[in-house]
Design brief:
By secondary structure, the protein is an alpha/beta fold. The protein has helices spanning 5-14, 23-34, 95-112, 131-136, 197-214, 250-271, 290-301, 318-322, 352-367; strands spanning 42-45, 52-56, 63-69, 117-123, 146-159, 163-165, 168-182, 186-187, 219-228, 234-235, 238-247, 274-283, 286-288, 306-308, 312-315, 326-335.
Length: 368
Amino acid sequence: MSTTPIQLRHTLHQNPELAFKEFKTTELIINSINSLDGSKRLIVHTPFQTGTLVEYKVNDSEYLLFRADIDALAIKEENEIEFKSKNDYMHACGHDVHTSILYSFLIEVLKTKPDKNILFLFQPAEEAGGGAMRFYNTGIFDQFNIRNAFALHVSDEFPVGTIASTEGVLFASALEVDIEFIGESAHVAFPNEGKNAFNAMRKFLDRRDVFIKKLDEPFIFGIGKYISGDVRNITPGYAKLEGTIRGLSEKKVLQFLDEVRKILHEVKTETDVDIKLTNGAHYPEVINDRTIFKKLSEKISGKFNFINCGYTMTGEDFGFFSHKWSSFMFWLGTNTGKKYGLHNPYFLPPDDVIEIGKNVFKEILLSD
C-alpha cells in the first residue's frame, strides 16, 4: 500500500534532519514515490547526496518545475502531538508540509496524466548552505528546457487557505555573516593591559545602528547570536556575532556589506582589535515574474482567497531558481486561530493545508 501525503508528513515531522543530512528523509521520499501506482512513468534523479529530482515526461517540449524544501531546523519541538519530533530537531518552518504537498501533487499528476512535462524537486538545505545553488551546480538541469518554476511557503501570518503573493520581489535577498573580534584578555583591574574585544564589538554595533537609520530603503542587519567573555573578572579577548543582512536585491546587499567592511576597518584602527568577517550562504531575492503573476493571481482569485501581500524581509533559497527561470512563489496561510510564526517550537500547520496546497499547484498546472 502506498504512503498517503498525511502519512508522509507525519513521518517526516517525527524524523527531521538538518541541511545536507537529509539522508533518511530522501530515502523515505523516494521509497514513497516508487510505491505509487504509475511510478514507472517517472524518472528519479539523485545527482546530489540528499534530495531528489523526479521527472514526468510526455513529450519533447518544455518543463515546468515545482519545488519543495526538505530540511529541518535545530529547534526542539514543544508541541504535544502524536507525531511529535523524536529528536532535538524540528520542521519548524513547515518543510514537512511543503514536501507532502509536492508529493500529493505528484500523485495527482500520475492520476490525471497531463500532457505536460513536469519536474518535482525535493530540494535539500534551504535553511543553510544554499542547497538550491549546490543542487543546480550538479548540472542535472542542463538536460531540461525549463520554462517556469513554482514554489510555496506555509505561514500562520495568514488565515488557513489564504494565498498571498506579489509581483516582483516577494522575499528579500539574505546574506549570512559572522564577525569575529580578536583582542587580548586582561584582568578587570588592569584593562589597559588588554584589548577588549567586546568593546570593539559594541562600538561596531553602535555605528551599524547609525548607518542603518540613514538609509532610505528597507534594510536589515539582524543579529541572533553574540559570544563574548569567560569569567567575570577578565575582560574579553574574543567576541563574535552571527547575523544576516537583508535587502530587496542581491546587488544592494553586497553594497551594504562594503559599508560594513568600512565600519569594521574604522573600529579596528581605533581599538587595535583584529577583526575577521566571514560570509555564509547568500540567497538572492525571490522575484515573481510580472506576466505569470498577473495570469495566476487572476486564476487563483477565482477559487481561493488571494491577497496581494507585498514584499517581506524573509529570505528564501528559491530566490536562486527565480533568477534562472521565470517563477512564481506564494505564501499558503495556515492560521486557524493562534499565531506562533516560523522557526517557533510551536509552529504546526494543520494537515488540511496539504490538500489546499496541492489544489493550488493543480490550478497553476491547468493555467499553463
